[in-house]
Amino acid sequence: MKIKFKLFASLTDYLPPERERGSNSVDIDVPEGASIGEVVAPFQLPMKLVHLVLVNGIYVAPAERSTRRLAEGDVLAIWPPIAGG
Q1: How many CA within 13 A on the CB side of residue 29?
Q2: Cα dihedral sign for 8, 13, 19, 22?
Q3: Strand 58-59, strand 52-55: pairing
Q4: Pfam families, per this entry (predicted)?
Q5: Fewer beta carbons within 10 angstroms: which end of the chain, N or C?
Q6: What's the pLDDT score for residue 19?
Q7: For residues 75 and 6, is the Cβ–Cβ distance under 8 A?
Q8: Checking DSSP bridges between strand 52-55 and strand 25-29, what pairing results, if any?
Q9: Residue from 1, 2, 8 nearest 54 by CA
Q10: Bridging pattern class, strands 58-59 and 75-79
Q11: What is the pLDDT of residue 76?
């Protein structure tokens, strides 16, 4: 099944080099019913940098990320911790 995988800020460095230049997202094929954890694992994101996770704009708590299943057409978006002042 296809989903859109979006990474923000410094996490964009973990997207595959074949993504569209300047884009922070890729369309990827994942197994039917894949969990967020299963989708993220091949990209080798440091878990300390996986801070805010949204599926279709809805927050997914850390405890749910290994079991939350994705569906065809979902948008998985991840942000690192952001500091500001």
Answers
A1: 0
A2: positive
A3: antiparallel
A4: ThiS (PF02597)
A5: C
A6: 73
A7: yes
A8: unpaired
A9: 8
A10: unpaired
A11: 97
